[in-house]
Design brief:
Blueprint lengths: L5 H19 L7 E2 L12 E5 L9 E8 L2 E9 L5 H16 L10 E5 L3 H6 L4 E8 H4 L3 H13 L7 E2 L3 H4 L11 H18 L5 H36 L1
Antiparallel strand pairs: 1-6, 1-7, 2-3, 3-4, 4-6, 5-6
Length: 242
Amino acid sequence: MKMISSALRKYLIKQKKDFVRAFANPAQYPMGVINREDSTKNIYGSTSYWDPKVRKKKCAFIREIRVGSEVYKEYWVAVKEKSSKNYRTWFKKFIQREYGVAFNTVPSELQADHVLSRAFAEEVGIQYVRMAFIWNKYNTNSGWAVEQGFVDLARKEVNRKRMYLIDYSIIMKPLGIFPPKNVQDFQNQGGTIANKISKRANINDPSLVLNHLTQFYDEKWYPVLLDDSKKRTRKKKKKKKK
């Protein structure tokens, strides 16, 4: 991997702080919304506008939120935009304009991606999702099967969501923490994951994080990761039979 530029390093530090802030104040910093207006509704000091550099109508917008004298900017893209080349280019151009991060300084290992799975967003009725730079090793570790499991779980939900807030499955990626691959992995690594989240998100009590993480895991991850574990077991058995 090539050395990253000082501008990119500075932005990644800023991005991490942004997600830590979102984790501490989830209602102020949604990760997915039905429409652009929902991203600022009842959120003090926030505004949004369509990206003037994107020709496709209603495909990308910028949300600004003022905290004291600071103004934070987020980039959002439409779930309906299927071309990864398009939405990644739009995001990178935004980062270049706002933070001086040139295209050729972004290594291939650093991916511009949705913080919330596009397929999952579609299933729960979300139309716009926030973008971020995520290192590939953290973005692909959980695997397609786990992501598909969340999509299958979403299909069972009756209520569509107007807004999706940050949760443990989202915060791990920008903080550089490997998500668990299956049930056994979580049981083995849960304490370590909680300690890392506590340290990187500036939370004083790791045990509190572990309790919340376990609760989230039991309610949401368990059926997904357990199903993934069963799929892996079945695949191994099939290989042995052959």
